[in-house]
Amino acid sequence: MLIQDVMGSLRDRFMEGGWPMYPILVLGILLLAGAFRYLKQPDGQKLPLLCILGILTLVMGGFGTVLGVIHTLTALHSVPPDLVIRIALQGLGESLNDLSLALMMIIAAGVLASVGALRAEEAQATESDRA
Question: Other CB atoms closer than 10 Å to residue 40's CB: what's the count?
Fold first, then answer.
């Protein structure tokens, strides 16, 4: 029951975020895959791609949030005055789902890349000890 509630809630948040959630998800998956690859085989040549994917994920999350806020604010003129604040806050909350997904992906990839960097440091230290 709890898992169904969580999955339903995640699906609802994803749908509330609108179409920008799809490119954020794709960029985030690519970022996570690159970070996992770096974790398994730490190589400095992979870092520029990770940085670019991280930036793109964050920018897309910000872009989706801004689009949602614009959509919310432009629709407020047709809302009854007594509901304006409630609808504005609901729209803002839904808009923030884009940024939230982007940040979750970036944080997870950052953890993976950090472990990869630690592994690279350990390998380098071991190599220098042998010499």
Answer: 11
| pTM (whole model) above 0.90 | no
- Count CA within 13 A, CB hemisphere, residue 89: 3
- Let me know: does 70 contact 98? Beta carbons within 8 Å: no
Sign of the torsion angle spanned by Cα atoms 118, 115, 46, 50: negative
Can you give the three-state secondary structure of the chain, one letter per residue?
A: CHHHHHHHHHHHHHHHHCCCHHHHHHHHHHHHHHHHHHHHCCCHHHHHHHHHHHHHHHHHHHHHHHHHHHHHHHHHHHCCHHHHHHHHHHHHHHHHHHHHHHHHHHHHHHHHHHHHHHHHHHHHHHHHHHC
Predicted pLDDT of residue 3: 67
Compute φ and ψ for 36, nearest 5 degrees: -65, -40
pLDDT tens digits for 75-123? Answer: 999 999 999 999 999 999 999 999 999 999 999 999 999 999 998 888 8
